Amino acid sequence: MATPQQPDAPVPAEVIQIERELHRISYLSSRARQHDRMMALAGVPLDRAAVSLLRALADVERLRVGELASRLNVEAPHVTRQAQRLERAGYVERVPDPDDGRAQLIRLTPTGRDAVDRIRETSRRGMWAALSHWDTEDLRRLAGLFQRMVDDFLDYAAANESQEPSRSPAGHDA
Q1: Which residues form a coiled coil (predicted)?
Q2: Backbone phi, then psi, for 95, in 5-degree steps?
Q3: Based on the number of CB atoms within 10 Å of its own CB, is 111 exposed (0-12), middle (13-18) or buried (19 or more)?
Q4: Which of 4, 5, 149, 153 has the fewest CB atoms found within 10 Å of its own CB?
Q5: Burial classification of residue 109, based on how many CB atoms lie within 10 Å of its CB (0-12 exposed, 13-18 middle, 19 or more buried)
Q6: Are 35 and 120 in the same domain?
Q7: Tens place of pLDDT per residue across the chain (174 aa)
Q8: Checking phi first, is residue 166 left (phi over 0); if not, alpha (psi -120 to 50) or beta?
């Protein structure tokens, strides 16, 4: 296991390359044209924000707006507006929170679940088309390393969130 490096130590060339490649893949996957193509193939007429919300809900049974906003790293009003649009379109529904009668949870409807399944299948098919020439062991290694990297990123982000300086309402350090 590698030992943690000092924050001011030179960044290894491999990390520079990983950062560059992650940026490239992020750019490719977030382009509007790519999103529109994938939605057309999946037969789902949704924008990127709606898809992100549906995919986050698909991983859990139901969530409060605040919890969903936290998972998506956006403000709660954004999630509220998006959830209202998706509810009108039949993709999500609001249900009472069994732990708090005053609160509501958002969950996928069968239509929403079907949309997420089609989006994921379309995404997986495209990924497979791009990587189908890779051998099984390379795919297995990449999947394991990618999961490890994401887990480490999440752990690092969680640790650093608790160390961020507090801000007063005026924007000054507390």
Answers
A1: none
A2: -135, 155
A3: middle
A4: 4
A5: middle
A6: yes
A7: 455 566 788 999 999 999 999 999 888 887 888 888 999 999 999 999 999 999 999 989 889 998 999 888 889 999 999 999 999 999 999 998 888 878 889 999 999 999 999 999 999 999 999 999 999 999 999 999 999 999 998 888 888 876 655 544 444 443
A8: beta
- For residue 142, what are the domain limits? 134-162
3-state secondary structure 16-50: HHHHHHHHHHHHHHHCHHHHHHHHHHHCCCCCHHH
Q: Both 112 and 50 in a single domain?
A: yes
User: Domain tally for the chain?
Assistant: 2
CATH number at residue 75: 1.10.10.10
- Any domain includes 64: yes
* Residues 112 and 143 placed together within one structural domain of the fold: no
User: Whose CA is closest to 14, among 5, 139, 162?
Assistant: 5
Residues 83 and 153 in one domain: no
Q: Is residue 22 part of a domain?
A: no
* Sign for the pseudo-dihedral over CA of 114, 119, 120, 122: positive
